[in-house]
Amino acid sequence: LAAPLFADVAGDIEVSFEFFPPKSEKMEETLWESIQTLSPLGPRFVSVTYGAGGTTRERTHNTVARIARETAIPAAAHLTCVEATKAEIDQVAEEYWAAGVRHIVALRGDPPRAGEKYATHPGGYENAADLVTGLRKLHPFEISVAAYPECHPDSPNPGADIDNLKRKIDAGATRAITQFFFEPDTFFRFRDDCAKAGISAEIVPGIMPVMNFASVQRMSAMCGTDVPVWMGKLFEGLDEHPAARQLVAATLAAELCRKLYAGDVRQFHFYTLNRAELSYAICHLLGLRPKVGAALAAA
Ligand code: FAD
């Protein structure tokens, strides 16, 4: 008989969690409950996204600054080049440094109006690599960047996309976090191609537990992620069954992580969508347990 599922995981993993800035008091409460639930797992860092076109600039800053102030978890702020001059972006980065934030997820961002071609803002950073170079000149930030196992839609081909990732790492980024994907081989192929291109920085898989299949399909279509046919079948008929859908979502994401673990992946980044339960359950299945002291430090 084969070993029971998850019997071979040892909990020797490192995790990080991504949140988006809350839009209302209610959402803020949910976010803080999630951070409190997940923090005993001892994440390496938690990160907060930056809305398209800098629309969440204040809210992202307030959320990251509060995490830095009130918890012991290292906080990372996402920052994009969209609709801002270099001076404006440098100012945001300076404010983070002053608030004790030492980690930036440096991104180009998407065009402010969906469907338009990306255009560099006059006087702005040209792309993520250029932003990494700019941040490096300001302070010794830890910098993470984005990577695309299924190739970014703006890239002419996968090779050019990996060259772009290499430019970001060579400019001073320490880690790449991937776009979400659903087949482990997609990640393994990409990791091999990065190694062949001489990229030795950490490539951390971004894990998206599927809370809402229709919205994941929409997001996947925009960012070029393949949604396997078998996955659609597994979510069929669950629209009116949120609890069952959660269980299916946790099972699928945990199974993806288990296969990645079997392929020597030890770092995982979770797109939490500000809900703790799914990410917590998946971490638990991977053998991660609350760390003594982490809960107190997070309080
Ligand atoms: P870049 O690395 O600059 O590249 C984008 C594309 O353009 C690549 O295909 C690259 O090959 C091509 N390219 C860039 N420069 C050149 C060049 N000089 N020559 C040739 N080709 C070039 N978006 C947000 O708005 N807010 C967020 O908080 C956010 N967080 C994210 C977190 C993660 C982990 C990931 C994976 C994505 C995130 N995004 C976020 C989405 C991201 O902003 C978009 O995917 C965006 O379209 C590309 O950003 P980038 O940093 O990857 O861009």
TrEMBL record:
InterPro entries: FAD-linked_oxidoreductase-like, Mehydrof_redctse-like, MTHF_reductase_bac. GO terms for molecular function: methylenetetrahydrofolate reductase [NAD(P)H] activity. Keywords: Amino-acid biosynthesis, FAD, Flavoprotein, Methionine biosynthesis, NAD, Oxidoreductase. The keyword Glycosyltransferase does not apply. Pathway: One-carbon metabolism; tetrahydrofolate interconversion; Amino-acid biosynthesis; L-methionine biosynthesis via de novo pathway. The keyword NAD applies. It catalyses: (6S)-5-methyl-5,6,7,8-tetrahydrofolate + NAD(+) = (6R)-5,10-methylene-5,6,7,8-tetrahydrofolate + NADH + H(+). Its cofactor is FAD. SUPFAM superfamilies: FAD-linked oxidoreductase. Its EC number is 1.5.1.54. Belongs to the methylenetetrahydrofolate reductase family. This is Methylenetetrahydrofolate reductase. The gene is metF.
